[in-house]
Amino acid sequence: MNDHIVKKSVENKVFENGTIDGYTVAAIDGTKFFGSNKKSCPACLKNTKGQKTHCFHSGAVMSTVGNGPKLVIGFEMYKPGQDPSSKDEGELNVGKRLISSILKRHKKLIDVVVYDALACNSVWINHCRNLGIDTVVRAKNNNNKSLRFIKKKTNKSVEVEVWEDEREFEKVEVYESTFTMDNVEQPLRFVKSS
Ligand SMILES: [Zn+2]
């Protein structure tokens, strides 16, 4: 049903002008859909604390962000561990599966995908590059050497832009630099706001 809604929105040119500055921007986040201490099924994820096992279902969801309707583009469920000793699937893996399947179904719908700090690594960035899509991720604290270095360098730089609201209640200074991350071929842009 959701796929049909997305297809119809594309047909009706809902996102023709993009959602932010002419780009169609979508964001991914993980969420828990259902959980129980009593009911369970074979596809449940499990969280055991002492004697109690909590059974639940989680997934990663992608939605457009910015101007216009916030349309859910797709979702992907976490897969449970194959046996009691193996771990349930991690969120980054689910996110990768989600964006791959969405781009297969809705070609050219999304220009930029936004994700939180758990995607601040070469695995995610290369995955998006290979799919031909731009990505914005939140920088993780002290994630790696190159990030620590670029944070310091950017802190000493001059602002490239100042965003101000009409009544000057709020003022945001924007700083940026370019850097390279291990295992990522292309240079990346680091943006920081005050
Ligand atoms: Zn279940």
TrEMBL record:
Name listed for the protein in its UniProt record: Transposase IS4-like domain-containing protein
Lineage: Bacteria, Bacillati, Bacillota, Clostridia, Eubacteriales
